[in-house]
Structure formats: structure tokens, C-alpha cells
Write a structure and sequence with these properties.
Layout lengths: L4 H19 L12 H15 L1 E3 L2 E3 L3 E6 L8 H21 L9 E6 L8 E5 L3 H12 L17 E2 L6 E10 L5 E6 L3 E5 L6 E2 L10 E6 L2 E6 L6 E3 L2 E3 L1 E3 L5 E4 L2 E13 L2
Parallel strand pairs: 3-4, 9-10
Antiparallel strand pairs: 1-2, 3-5, 4-6, 7-8, 7-17, 9-11, 11-12, 12-15, 13-14, 13-16, 16-17
């Protein structure tokens, strides 16, 4: 058998060269818009650059601002929220894979900035509360005014305001593998479900994945999404990837059953 080691190393070198090539600014001529995976990689790099050792741990920020050209920001608020949620999920996976510590589940904010070239993205950890308040005051000022004429590079950036999400007041009845039942109220725009303790709805089920599924409020409804779980998700007897939930829907995650008891009113999410 021929030794393929040298040949594989040459192919890997070519792949790395092409990857660097397409990360260069000139490569934007070949792609009209930035892809989510490219933004994800920039979030990961921002996390890497901001990491710091603390008390034997490596701590990374849990808030990130992604600045995009206005034409690259999803015009549909639901699509923008989905993108932000997916980037946050990817940031959490990256932190876990590298054993980084975060104070809470990562969040990603999209910001529209005409100074960012189309097909590019600038990602940075979100500022502290005090700095954010000062920046917000400058952003609200009219461009060119005395208040907005400082040296802060993002002072006149137009933030993409993700609208308040109306959260359906949903009650889930959960039936664990041992037959025990409990009720869980969905009261936030996003709820993650799985075995890991950082989920909002934690399942005591070995057949469920650590991060099995997600519930997301969209346009007054509640969307169920399987997070590429090992054993999949079954709703009303059919394997699903994503669908809108309604009263009476039966969700099977591993050996756990979730029953949607009510979706009867909406609350403003804080």
C-alpha cells in the first residue's frame, strides 16, 4: 500500500492556503453577502482574543456585538433573531469545546453599520453596562451633532433594534421516564431543553441529548427546534426538525414526553 501521508499533508496545505485566500478582502468580489458560518468564525475569534485566566479558569465574555453592512442584516426581524440565536448557540458550543468559562449563556446582538464593507463583519465583546449606557446616548444623538462627534468608532453606528418578542404564555406538562409529572411555564423568548444543567428545562433522561431542543417565540407563536440531537425529536408521532406548536401537541425527547397544555395569551418579554 502506498504511503498517503505526504500527499495528504500537501492537500491540507492547499486547503489552508485557499481558506486564507477567501478570508482576504479581495475575496468579497466572489461573494455578494456574508454567510452565517463566516460570522460564527469571527465570533469565535473575538472570544479567543478576549479570553483571560482567572482563578485557574479561562474566562470569556458572554455578550457579543456583530456589526454588519445594512444590506447584510436580515430584513425580517424573525430571521435576524434566528441568526442571533444560532450564533449564540455556536458560541456556547465553542466555549464548551475549549473549556472556557462564561458567566451565563452567550448572547449575540446584530448592529447595522454602513462603514462595514458588504460581505464582512466586525465582532467585539459587548461593552460593560456603564460604557454601554454612554454609547447608547451617543448612538441616539444625530450624526454630526456635538454629542455624536467624539472619537468612539461606533458612536454613530445605527443599532439594529430587534423588536420586543411577544412570548405566548405556554404551559408544558412534562412526563419523565419514571412517570413523574410536572408543569413548566414558558415565560422567556427562548427556552433550551436537555440533560445539561444550563438548560432552562432540564430533563432527567439519559436518552435525551445535553442540549436537545429549543423553544423560540416568533410573531406571537412558539417554535420548536431540534438542536441536532442524537436520538431526534418526535412531535405527534412524526420526527421533526422544526415546527410551530399548538395546544395538545405531544413532544417526545428520548423517553421524556412534553405535552403542550395551553398557548392562550401573550406577554411582553422583558
Amino acid at each position: 500500500m502506498l504511503d498517503s501521508g505526504p500527499e495528504m499533508r500537501r492537500l491540507a496545505a492547499v486547503e489552508r492556503f485557499l481558506e486564507r485566500l477567501f478570508e482576504r478582502p479581495g475575496a468579497r468580489l466572489f461573494r455578494p453577502a456574508i454567510q452565517p458560518i463566516q460570522i460564527q468564525r469571527r465570533v469565535e475569534r473575538a472570544m479567543e482574543h478576549a479570553r483571560r485566566p482567572t482563578s485557574g479558569r479561562v474566562v470569556v465574555p458572554d455578550r457579543y456585538v456583530v456589526r454588519l453592512h445594512p444590506d447584510d442584516v436580515p430584513p425580517d426581524p424573525d430571521a435576524a433573531q434566528r441568526l442571533a440565536d444560532e450564533l449564540a448557540d455556536a458560541a456556547l458550543r465553542f466555549a464548551r469545546e475549549h473549556r472556557y468559562s462564561v458567566s451565563e449563556r452567550p448572547r449575540v446582538e446584530l448592529a447595522s453599520d454602513p462603514r462595514i464593507p458588504r460581505g464582512d463583519a466586525a465582532v467585539a465583546p459587548a461593552p460593560t453596562a456603564d460604557h454601554a449606557a454612554r454609547s447608547a446616548a451617543r448612538v441616539d444623538a444625530a450624526p454630526g451633532s456635538a454629542q455624536a462627534s467624539g472619537s468612539d468608532p461606533i458612536e454613530d453606528t445605527a443599532r439594529y433594534a430587534v423588536p420586543q418578542v411577544r412570548v405566548p404564555a405556554t404551559i408544558l406538562r412534562t412526563v419523565s421516564p419514571d412517570g413523574r409529572e410536572r408543569r413548566f411555564e414558558v415565560a422567556t423568548p427562548m427556552v433550551t431543553i436537555g440533560r445539561a444543567p444550563d438548560n432552562q428545562l432540564v430533563l432527567a433522561d439519559r436518552r435525551a441529548s445535553r442540549h436537545h431542543a429549543r423553544l423560540t417565540a416568533r410573531a406571537g407563536g412558539l417554535i420548536f427546534t431540534d438542536l441536532d440531537s442524537t436520538n431526534g425529536s418526535i412531535v405527534n408521532g412524526k420526527r421533526v426538525r422544526e415546527l410551530a406548536l399548538g395546544p395538545g401537541d405531544r413532544i417526545e425527547l428520548g423517553r421524556t414526553v412534553l405535552i403542550v397544555e395551553s398557548v392562550d395569551r401573550t406577554l411582553e418579554a422583558s
